[in-house]
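A.,

Following up on our hallway conversation. Structure tokens first:
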């Protein structure tokens, strides 16, 4: 995630901010600009906002604050003033909320939605979801955030365009317990959502397209019984010992669909991490460079033509730096993976699919 700056005073801003800590300006993330901006009320138009800049635009766009900000202080995305939907483009994707009458669920829901907005940002930057769907519609997957009930355990997963997340994943202690029990060293809310979005985009970008046979050659035959494959994975206590030679994670070995979703998740990790590093002007010594000159990390979203090898050349030393910084603070590695050549080939496949701008099944639906 890039570092933003206040339109009014230039102070650094972070993605979740709702107010500039220096000048006190109200902030709103404007999806049509994919930017966090200082905003101010439009004179004479109650409920409408505009960008707060020194330079006035002719017929400047007007916005409303998302209904979930007004009612719950749970969102900082804005809505175009002409959009009939009271919810922003991210919040309208959520079909079912947890029971907000329970005090603990408000914090859980807030943390999940914050992670989902980060997912939305990356997908929008990659051109995979619309920032301004027409007629108050939504684009992308539908989400539902549910809690366990007596005799009813909520399973996190994707089915027919709907992503379900057990809100217990928003509790740090419960998530760590499951991370240990399921041998998953990287288990975060954002990681979950990125993984499940991979299943959603497999349906849109692979299934029923000319890419399917290439997918099968790379990842395997997805028609293999999915339930049986997962049962076998857990019955055997996880992945085979040599999984790191072929997969990005242990769970990727369970089934070709999971291999794709885990690889998709890692690709989103990669471009997001590179954008973050680029926004801070990070410079690195790239391995294999004989003269040991430093190279500035490039923003993968600012290039018209993105070369996968260039991304990887910067991503690998960046993950080493990230892990070293964590170890300096006595923390575990932030990125506990070593990606082998076979896994890199799969990441390249995901990259090519995303950037081919080829077949894409429409998903616009009404709320």
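Then the amino acids I'd put at each of the 367 positions:
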């Amino acid at each position: 995630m890039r570092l933003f700056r206040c339109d009014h005073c230039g102070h650094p801003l972070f993605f979740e901010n709702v107010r500039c800590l220096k000048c006190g300006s109200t902030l709103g993330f404007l999806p049509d600009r994919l930017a966090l901006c200082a905003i101010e009320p439009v004179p004479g138009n109650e409920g409408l906002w505009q960008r707060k800049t020194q330079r006035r635009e002719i017929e400047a766009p007007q916005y409303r604050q998302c209904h979930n900000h007004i009612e719950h202080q749970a969102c900082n995305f804005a809505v175009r003033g002409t959009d009939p939907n009271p919810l922003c483009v991210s919040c309208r994707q959520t079909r079912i909320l947890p029971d907000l009458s329970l005090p603990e669920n408000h914090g859980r829901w807030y943390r999940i939605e914050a992670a989902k907005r980060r997912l939305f940002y990356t997908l929008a930057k990659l051109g995979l979801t619309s920032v301004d769907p027409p007629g108050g519609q939504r684009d992308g997957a539908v989400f539902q955030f549910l809690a366990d009930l007596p005799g009813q355990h909520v399973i996190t997963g994707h089915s027919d365009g709907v992503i379900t997340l057990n809100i217990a994943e928003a509790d740090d202690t419960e998530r760590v317990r499951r991370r240990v029990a399921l041998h998953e060293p990287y288990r975060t809310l954002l990681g979950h959502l990125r993984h499940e979005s991979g299943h959603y985009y497999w349906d849109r970008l692979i299934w029923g397209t000319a890419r399917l046979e290439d997918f099968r050659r790379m990842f395997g035959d997805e028609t293999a019984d999915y339930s049986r494959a997962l049962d076998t994975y857990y019955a055997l206590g996880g992945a085979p010992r040599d999984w790191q030679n072929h997969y990005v994670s242990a769970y990727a070995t369970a089934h070709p669909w999971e291999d794709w979703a885990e690889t998709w998740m890692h690709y989103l990790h990669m471009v997001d991490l590179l954008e973050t590093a680029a926004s801070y002007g990070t410079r690195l010594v790239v391995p294999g460079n004989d003269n040991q000159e430093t190279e500035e990390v490039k923003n993968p979203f600012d290039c018209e033509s993105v070369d996968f090898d260039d991304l990887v050349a910067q991503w690998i030393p960046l993950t080493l730096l990230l892990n070293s910084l964590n170890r300096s603070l006595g923390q575990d590695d932030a990125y506990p993976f070593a990606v082998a050549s076979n896994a890199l080939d799969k990441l390249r496949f995901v990259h090519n699919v995303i950037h081919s701008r080829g077949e894409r099944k429409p998903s616009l639906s009404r709320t």
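The chain has a mean pLDDT of 91. Curious whether your intuition agrees with the design.

B.
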